[in-house]
Structures are given as structure tokens and as C-alpha cells.
Amino acid sequence: xxxxxxxTAGGIRRNVVFVTGTDTGVGKTMLTAWLTRHLRALGTDAxxxxxxxxxxxxxxxxxxxxxxxxxxxxxxxxxxxxxxxxPVLAAxxxxxxxxxxxxxxxxxxxxxxxxxxxxxxxxxxxSPLGEGFDNRDLLMALRATPLLVVPNRLGAVNxxxxxxxxxPKPLQxxxxxVLVDQRTKDAAARTNASLLSELEPGVxxxxxxxxxxxxxxxxxxxxxxxxxxVKRLQG
Length: 235
Ligand SMILES: Nc1ncnc2c1ncn2[C@@H]1O[C@H](COP(=O)(O)OP(=O)(O)O)[C@@H](O)[C@H]1O
Ligand SMILES: [Mg+2]
Prior knowledge:
By secondary structure, this protein is an alpha/beta fold. It has a single domain (17-234), classed as P-loop containing nucleotide triphosphate hydrolases (Rossmann fold). 39% of the residues lie in helices and 21% in strands. The protein is built from ten helices and ten strands. The chain has a six-stranded parallel beta sheet with strand order 2-5-1-8-9-10, with helices on both faces. The protein has a two-stranded parallel sheet with strand order 3-4. Helix 9 (192-199) links the parallel strand 9 and strand 10. The two termini are 16 Å apart. The model has no long low-confidence stretch (mean pLDDT 94). Residues 24-30, 59, 180, 208, 210-211, 213 line the site of adenosine-5'-diphosphate. Magnesium ion (MG) binds next to helix 1.
């Protein structure tokens, strides 16, 4: 697939998706794994990366499994640190450091080998990743399409708007917000999507139901929702 045809008018790449969100623990890894498996099942040669991990490599292992063997674990996740803290602090603790250029070079090399690459950040959009850069810097350097994971509960409209507002305008226009249902739905879960579209006209919003907590295989209930996310990402 030619790279040029993969860019929007604003120069944002449709074939590189950066999965970030409002926080850690919001469902980025689950969504990235399910989406990668779904894209592959649809015939797209997609892989997922988790360039930086700290405090264990569980995310990278889940994505490695979802990739179906297309990449070695060390390619999915070249930088991993023991301390369960922000990667930049965990790296310092080990006397190491990662630069934005190194991460961009790795992710860019992978994008040349596959039709679609999903990159999972660490923490939320403004969480620090390495020396002098955070998730937003990496997203922007990659000219990636932002996929924003937001828990669908009271407060979601504020959280989604804060994250959207932290993106430059062209990226805001291309961002896809995934509202992830929680195990127990509160009253706001029913109105968040419509209120968010009212306040942020044009923003692409996809609901994701609460599914079985597994990154292996795709629960049937999730397939329609994943189809919708794919449609939005490619639209
Ligand atoms: N849509 C969902 N359905 C069921 N469980 C989910 C869903 N999204 C996330 N989870 C659960 O929430 C927890 C955090 O998800 P995870 O993907 O690891 O978050 P993050 O990558 O943002 O830190 C995991 O235990 C996961 O199983
Ligand atoms: Mg994760």
C-alpha cells in the first residue's frame, strides 16, 4: 500500500494509529489487541506496538499475541523497564534514557513493513514517555491518527474534551473517541455520546461495550463495535 494514499489532506497518516486516552487502566491494551485481531481477520496486515513498557511487559505480550507472529516481542516493545512508574522515571532508575527520535525511527521502520500499525502509548495523552517527550509528542511526530480511549461514565465528557483540546486542530478533526462502557453503567453512560457530539461537533465517537476481560480472541458482542471503529479510522 502506498504511503501517500494513506495520508489525509492535513498530512495525518490513516495507516498509523496512536492509541492513547484519558488515563492508564482505561482499556487501551484491550482495544488495541481486539482491533489488531479484527483488522487481521478482515485481511489487513496490521500489527500493534507498545514501544515503552514499565513495570512488566504484559501489554506488549498481549499485543504480540494479537499480531499473530508478525513481529518479535522485542520489536513490539523495544524499551522495557522494571520500575512500575512513568517510563521516563523507570528508565532513569536503570541509568538509561530513550529519545523521541529513537522511538519514531523504530515505529516508522515498522510502518514500512505493514499495511497498518497501531501504537499504544503509556498512561494518558500527556503522560511523560522518555527524556523530553510525552505521548502527545510521539503521536504528533508520527503524524498518527489519534484513537482516544475514554471510560463511559460520569465525567467522561469533561475528560474527552480535555484530551481533545490538548491536540492540535488537524489532529482533533481526525481523532476517534472510543467510549468504553463500564461493568456497571451509570446514568451518564446513556447521554455522554450525544452530549459530547453536541459540544464537539464533528468529533467521531464510537461506543465499545464491556466485554469479557480477555485479549485472546474477540468476544462476539464486540465485533460490531470494532467494525465501527475501523470504519471511522479509515473514513
Ligand atoms: N471493553 C472492556 N471490557 C471488559 N474489560 C475491559 C474493557 N476494557 C478494559 N477492560 C479491563 O480493564 C482493565 C484495564 O484495561 P487495559 O486495556 O489494560 O488498560 P490500559 O491499557 O489503558 O492501561 C483490564 O483488566 C481489562 O481487562
Ligand atoms: Mg495498556
